Amino acid sequence: MPPRGMSAEDKRLTVLALFHDSAEPWLLKDMEKAAAKKGVVFQAVKDVVQSLVDDSLVSVDKIGTSNWFWSFPGAADAALKARLAAIDAETHAVEVETKDMDERIATARAENPETEARVVQRALLASAEELHASLKKEEHSFFSGDDAMMSVMRQNTPVATLAANRWTDDVFMLKSWVEKKTASRAETHAFFKQQAEINFDTFDYVE
């Protein structure tokens, strides 16, 4: 009784053995019958043969109107060795590229270290962008006539004030954080004036 439940690799080995044992070219229909007797499902033989062709373990040539398939042990060994060599070359190339990328990342990090200035600048930028978006949305409502514009302005002034003061809150929180890091009020004021053009002598909430 033929074996059941053959794995995909078992099917490939069974079909390849038929090629090697015969040492002759095969038509697909003949290989389907022979492989079926060895336990390979008849309908699966075509795909198995094609997978062997794709891996260069079986050769195919059209003679007349028919496709003939063949494989000899020496040729299969050579194909396997060539495939392994290609895989080794690809693996080495990937390893070299990965190492190069790691070195470039390390160099970039060394040349551009994360600093307190960058942290503060990103936080200020995010807060400013949020405020800008809020004011831009309000601006779009000012294009429908004088009366409507004045009405909208009166309605939205508290919103704009709230947004501006929320941004001011963020700045003061960042100021406290930087002041703890520097332990100097004067250094903190100088830092914000240089990095964000904020002068705490005049900076305050909107009333």
Q: Numbering strands along the chain, what is their spatial order in the largest sheet?
A: 1-3-2
For the largest beta-sheet, the strand count, sense and barrel status come to: 3 strands, antiparallel
Number of helices: 7
Q: Name the overall outline.
A: elongated
Count of DSSP E strands? Answer: 3
Rg measurement, Å: 37 Å
Helical residue percent?
over 70%
Low-confidence parts? none
Report how far the terminal alpha carbons are from each other: 93 Å
Share of β-strand residues: 5-15%
The mean pLDDT is: 75
Class inferred from helices and paired strands = mainly alpha
| Helix-strand string | HEHHEEHHHH
Question: What is the gist of this entry?
Answer:
This protein is mostly helical and 207 residues long.
Structural description of this entry:
There is one protein chain. With 207 residues, the protein is mostly helical. It is built from seven helices and three strands. Strands 1-3-2 form a three-stranded antiparallel β-sheet. Helix 1 (8-22) packs across helix 3 (45-54). The termini are far apart. The mean pLDDT is 75.
Summarize the topology.
Layout: H1 8-22, E1 26-27, H2 28-37, H3 45-54, E2 59-63, E3 66-70, H4 73-111, H5 116-139, H6 146-182, H7 185-196
Antiparallel strand pairs: 1-3, 2-3
Helix pairs in contact: 1-3, 5-6, 6-7
Which key features would you list for this structure?
207 residues, mainly alpha, three-stranded antiparallel β-sheet, 3 strands, elongated
